[in-house]
Amino acid sequence: MIDFRSDTVTRPSDQMRRIMADAQVGDDVYGDDPSVNRLEEYAADLAGFEAALFTSSGTQANLLALMSHCQRGDEYLCGQQAHNYRFEGGGAAVLGSIQPQPVENDADGSLPLEKLAAQIKPDDIHFAQTRLLSLENTIGGKVLSQDYLAQAQGFAFEHGLKIHLDGARVFNASVRQQLPLSAIAQHFDSLTICLSKGLGAPVGSLLVGDEALITKARRWRKMLGGGLRQAGILAAAGQYALENNVNRLAEDHDNAGYLASELAQLDELEVALEQVQTNMVFARLSSGDSRALQHHLAQRGILISAANTLRLVTHLDVDRTGVDKLITETKAFFASNR
Ligand SMILES: *Cc1c(COP(=O)(O)O)cnc(C)c1O
């Protein structure tokens, strides 16, 4: 199958598996796993931070960030579209007693500062205490501009808030902008990074921050059942991913751009071309049922996400031939339905 549903479907390569098999390991709860320690130091350095923490998932890394920045009864500002508001099971509220305060995202994925300002609660016993601003980059495949990040950082500082980045796909932003990770990370007090999406590791994310934050997060991680033992076997895959699979994200972006421009030629599809900045293409059927297209493609060995909109994600397990097959079969589907 050629799988365009998500970049989470990427599988560890043979070389990555060999490196995992050979990884030096120890008990990471004792701080003894050399492969985990190496990955955490390496990631902290890349981001220009003091420390990092290896976590079982991006959801866990975001939850640890929220619980380490905020206390019970605090709140965080985020986007209506934010992964750590919509797609993480309400974990901050359920497990952290932290209230989200979402605001509507602009079309470019940013959160307008005046909308955020209007939601900051005054110091009054009626209100939760606003502590944190959480952004996401990339968001829906879109890159937040460096200008916006600088403004958001200034805004957070001015209002006494910490600022966190859900950077599940921050390396897509870094590669697209030809900027080192640290240039993006410098605008934040903490960030999360997914190793298990386009970077191709089977498992794992990172939370990056200063020593004090990571010490708190390490305690919460243990409480949440995320203290792993010989985790070096997984960290080695993450290390391999960071050393080998970052720059090649540019190929995924090229493939997404090519896919979008080809699909945009079809009258039956409305492709959001200006939103195709990294590895995601969103398209809407002008009429008819996207599930019929999904079914047609699945019968030909191609998987896509189809609801109101189609979401097509490129990654290291789909090459240009696979993209061409998707284009050809999509064209054939619409031709046979005309
Ligand atoms: C995937 C994703 C996460 C969560 O990662 P999991 O490892 O699936 O828990 C968080 N934020 C964003 C933006 C994501 O895309």
UniProtKB/TrEMBL annotation:
Summary of subunit composition and partner proteins: Homotetramer.
Molecular-function annotations in GO: L-allo-threonine aldolase activity
EC class (word): lyase
Coiled-coil zones: 259-286
Transmembrane regions listed in the UniProt entry: none
Entry's Gene Ontology BP terms: glycine biosynthetic process; L-threonine catabolic process
Keyword vocabulary terms for this entry: Coiled coil, Lyase, Pyridoxal phosphate
Natural source organism: Ferrimonas sediminicola
UniProt EC number: 4.1.2.48
Modified residues (N6-(pyridoxal phosphate)lysine): K197
Lineage: Bacteria, Pseudomonadati, Pseudomonadota, Gammaproteobacteria, Alteromonadales
Domain Aromatic amino acid beta-eliminating lyase/threonine aldolase: 3-284
Protein name: Low-specificity L-threonine aldolase
